[in-house]
User: What shape does this take?
Amino acid sequence: MFIMRMIILMVKRVTLSKKRPPINTILIRQAFKYLRKGSVLEAVGCLEQVSSGKRGPYVDYLLSVAYLKSDRLASASDIVRNALRHYPDYAPFKEILTYLALKSGSSKEQVIGPIIQYGQEYPESRKIRRMHKRLLKSKDFAKFQRKLTLEECITLQKPPAAVEATHFKRDRAAFNLRFRPSNAAIVALVLIVVAVAVTLSVVVKKSVFTQSSSSSEISTEHFRLDNHRYPLIDTEEGGSRFSYSNEKQLLEDYEKSRRYLKDGKNNEALVILNRIMLSNVNISVKDRVAFLKEFIRRMDEKQYQPLSADKLIGDSALYSGFYVVLTGKINNYKSSEGSTVFTLLINEKDNQFDAVAEVVSDTPLNSIENGSTVTVKGEFLKAAQNERIIVRADTVTAE
Assistant: This one.
């Protein structure tokens, strides 16, 4: 759908008027419209095509908001902090920094100072003042942080009235021509370029997120940690469950997890990645960890291991995403055209069992029924409050 919209947009812009605005202006205005109605993918697609040379702060502003809407906090933070070096007086960035501070901070005391500073630097922002007041009144910072939304912190800025005056490059002359039969070649060329781009995009995604069935070798070379631009850890943070006293320890753990992935040991890697996620690292590190966890989830070949229900219930956060093997008896079996759910009485024997698992499968499983003894291989998601573990099944095999 997005590709078709972009094709239509580009074809329409081979117009009858020589007074057509520059292509960058069109992309920026279109990106704003997409963002305003929640079409984040389309907005990013437009903004990433804008010429990079002297494009002004508004493009970086819109792109950082789009990244925030897609939960790419580290990418948004990098854009804003780099843009502020060139455009220190562009005040709307302060609302983005306010949101980032509130979402990445570990306590009220840690973030109150930056919020006061951003409010002074952008006194016109009602949202920063409101966040300041709400922060002071909040008694549970973790709850306040969890419920905070982007819209509560950021007012989406409209494009400048003369957006083409913000040092954007003009279009090539070909796009100012009247539409004639000869322009069909331009349209055909656009279609070919788009088709090639889509094909390359698919190939790249497959190379990043899939694994060959004949080999456990995967590539995470583009996802190393860079400790040259900013600190990777907060050595003064005492509220995290795990703590790194220096970046060397963090880098050793992170590289160890990547080595485990190359060796096909996804569970060993997951435990390390979860420990990093629960530690005093900054949001850019957590961004990379989240990517690697998603990387594991998309692997075709995974290592499944038995793990006691006591460990899964007792330390749900540390083992989140662990690929387990569970054996037991089925109860409360329900199946529809698109999914299957059932209760698994783990290690059941003579009506005695170790624990209860709620198992969900994205495909119907018609070969099993209540009372069947099965082996489940799947991803541990979390432990519910009733001490039942929740597992997404990859395979269910009857004994």
